[in-house]
Amino acid sequence: MLLALIFFLPLPFGSNIPSAWSVMVVWACALFMIWAIRWASGHADIPDGYIRAWPMHLCLLLWLFWIFMQVVPMPLSMLSILSPHAAAIQAEGMSILKPGMVIDGTISLSVDSTYAAIYKTIAYLFIFQLVLLLIRNRQHLKMLVWTLVLGGLFQAVYGSLMTLSGTEMIFFYEKKSTGVVTGTFINRNHLAGYLVMCLSLGIGLMVSMLERKHNPSWRSWIRGWLRVLMSEKLKLRLFLVIMVIALVMTRSRMGNVSFFAAMLIVGIAGLLLIHHARRSMMVLITSLIVIDIVVVGAWFGVDQVMDRLDKTFVQSSSEQGGTHVLDTDIQIGSETTALVEERGKVYRDTRQYFNDYWVTGSGLGSFRYVYPIYRSGDIQSYYEHAHRDYYEFAVETGVPGIVMLAFMMLYPLAISVSVMRHRRDPLAVGIAFGVFMSITAMLIHASVDFNLQIPANAATFIVILSIPFIVKTLSSKKRG
Fold it and tell me: What is the DSSP letter of 334?
């Protein structure tokens, strides 16, 4: 049921609608309650990997506590000390709506949005816990990675078929973005983020299958290739190629850049850290670059992605109440009405926003309601997100939130590097390689996009962040 949940998350529009993420919350809570009942009755125990991940458990709980504190009512006198701008806004509002009434205030300027963020955070916390509690051996770990690979494969095949056939549907709904692959996501950039995570874990699984010894005999070489042709390695390689095709066809600039940059960075790190498979890894990384970029990319339009890196125009495609709404998709071409790129101006305004809320934030999920206060007159579009995860989390959760998020990303990354350096178990090292690559890609992609605001991508990423603690304690015995 946990694997089914992980596979399900991207299907209903990336779970970025209330009905879908509500299912995620109920599903994750129900699974955790079932495990807790089994543990209380003596039918389940706590594995070593779960115990060793105690810093992450603590940080996740602190994060949840911090977000909860943002919706706790407090006297305006106290709130004015913690968040003077939030106190001033709420005092002014109540002086108009209920003059003369003594009221309490909250750190969050959008309590409903922050409550929604709390529910999602509880689901992420339980998913993190469940992965560590249920993925106990080599077979389970492979099943988890294959679930993510197959999830990415489904998105790649479905999205590519919809685009190539001209159907342009997400199930029974017409796509907003035509001519590009979006899978079951609304935004092609979020599909690209999801595909990169799945590709990274798939490449890590490929690394775990590398030959550890080089035999110069031509008979051994032929036998090796015959084994490859009849093994799951070829199937996995084919799946990875299909996902790369879909990634290129998303035309997502930073999605493609983050993937190939992370592959190069982590590939070089792998050559330095994984001494017992250096030759095989060099061959693998070279083949990935040559086949995926030069051959596959050239055939399916990598030149268009490169062109988008040079020329970027914002398309204001729809209107709500007379205000142009950024459709979160970028288009290029002479036939498109070109507007000046606004994201740099949004980042400029967001810095002032951060200066006013750097201590406590304005409440997780509140960006869309608070940013209009700081939006400059030269910005015509409506922004629900900052289009930069770092900025959005900073203004919504303040410095404490950023510190906790940094720890939750960098600590598993450090564990992955340690596993690659010190362990010699092929599966543990390979999966650690994939986690390292996935985190690196997300750190790059988050600089210009908001993947971590999408429940499917955030939940998938939290699954990946749990894996280093599993591979660190993974038994080397084949029977698991």
Answer: T
For residue 223, what are its two tokens?
């036998």
348-352-354-359 Cα dihedral, nearest 10 degrees: 160
- What pLDDT score was predicted for residue 303? 54
**Domain spans of the chain, in order of start:** 2-67+112-213+220-294+391-472, 73-106
Predicted pLDDT at 276:
62
Please tell me the distance from the alpha carbon of residue 146 to that of residue 437, in angstroms, as a whole number. 17
Helices first, then strands: H and E counts in the chain: 20, 6
Q: What is the pLDDT of residue 292?
A: 61
Q: How many CB atoms lie within 10 A of CB 68?
A: 15
Distance CA 124, CA 458 (A): 8
Neighbour count for residue 97 (Cβ, 10 Å): 9
| pLDDT tens-digit map of 35-90 | 999 999 999 999 999 999 999 999 999 999 999 999 999 998 899 999 999 988 88
pLDDT tens per residue across span 157-206:
999 999 888 888 888 888 777 788 999 999 999 999 999 999 999 999 98
**Would you list the DSSP string of 21-73?**
HHHHHHHHHHHHHHHHHHHHTTS----HHHHHTHHHHHHHHHHHHHHHHTTS-
Spatial separation of the C-alpha atoms in residues 426 and 208, rounded to whole Å = 5
Report the interhelical angle of 455-472 vs 426-445 (nearest 10°).
150
Q: What is the pLDDT of residues 213-231, one digit of tens each?
A: 555 555 665 565 556 555 6
pLDDT at 414: 96
Structure tokens at 309: 């890196």
Retrieve residue 375's tokens.
């939006």
d(CA 225, CA 221): 6
Backbone angles phi, psi at 314, to 5 degrees: -95, 135
Provide the 3-class DSSP secondary structure of residue 320.
strand
- Taking alpha carbons only, the member of 206, 50, 42 closest to residue 126 is 50
DSSP for 336-359 reads SPP----HHHHHHHHHHHHHHHTT
pTM, 2 dp: 0.87
Model confidence at 335: pLDDT above 80: no
Share of the chain above pLDDT 90, in %: 54
- The amino acid at residue 400 is P
CB 363 within 8 A of CB 393: no
Task: Give me the residues paired with residue 104 across strands.
Answer: 75
Q: What are phi and psi of 105, to 5 degrees?
A: -130, 175
In Å, how far are 169, 290, 292 from 281, measured between CA atoms? 39, 14, 16
- pLDDT of 13 > 50? The answer is yes
**Distance (Å, whole) CA 61 – CA 190:** 27
CA-to-CA distance for 256 and 193, rounded, in angstroms?
Answer: 9
Contact between 409 and 439 under an 8 Å Cβ cutoff? The reply is yes
